[in-house]
Amino acid sequence: MIRLIALTPAGKQLAERLQAEWPEANHFEVRVDYKPKPFAEFVQTAFKNADWLVFICATGIVMRTLAPVLQDKYQDPPVLVLDEEGKFVIPLLSGHEGGANEWGAHVARSLGAQLVMTTAKPYLNPIYTLGMGCERNCPLEFLESLMLDALAQKGLTPKQIHSLNSIDIKADETNLIALAAKYQWKFNTYSAQELAPMESFLSTKSDYIFNTVGVYGVAESAALLAAQEIMDDEPELVLAKIKNAKATCALARGFSG
């Protein structure tokens, strides 16, 4: 769930404007919470429930309220802070790992606001790549549903994906080709030798996959290599491999600035 938390009438008006622009955003329910009471208990519960939070209030209030429930950047949900006029968007928590930086950039664009980045590297222009592996003749519905689940987990839309990528033995996989065509993505495939240097970036390594195709993970390796080729820089795994009965999927990214 995305919660838009406002403490003033002007903030409530901005929250309702954002809510109208995000109807069921990427499978998330979007809710406006105006002056919730008791405030600290409400906010801390929402945070522990992993709700994505947008606060339209002073940054200090947010930090003092959330401080007792903070864990780490890998577990905490993304948190944004906006001023009530909608002029500034601050990714406050989980900016990098949790996705608040790119989410904040999206919110800033939708409002015509200024994104205020406080992390060490300005992740203003992320480029996302999708990696997939599958059984031979995998039905399109297995591929598409898994892909949409992956994107929803990171708050992304298909339009934000640069390319669909796999191993070269899947170059003729009918429904990988069909999936790329449906969403107007470039479809790239790579040899096991080309994918091998991505091994150090993988979240897990499968000996079974290695013995079958020559790499320790198809989806993650392909996504990572595509991201590296786009930026000619070290890639980053955004979503570790997820799978269903017939396919695997992972997301990587590089940055243009």
UniProtKB/TrEMBL annotation:
Record organism: Marinomonas profundi
Domain Cobalamin synthesis G N-terminal, chain residue ranges per copy: 42-120
Gene Ontology biological-process entries: cobalamin biosynthetic process
Domain of life: Bacteria
The protein's name in its UniProt record: Cobalamin biosynthesis protein CbiG
PANTHER family hit by this protein: COBALT-PRECORRIN-5A HYDROLASE (PTHR37477:SF1)
CobE/GbiG C-terminal domain mapped to chain residues: 129-252
Pfam families: CbiG_C (PF01890), CbiG_N (PF11760)
Coiled coil region boundaries: none
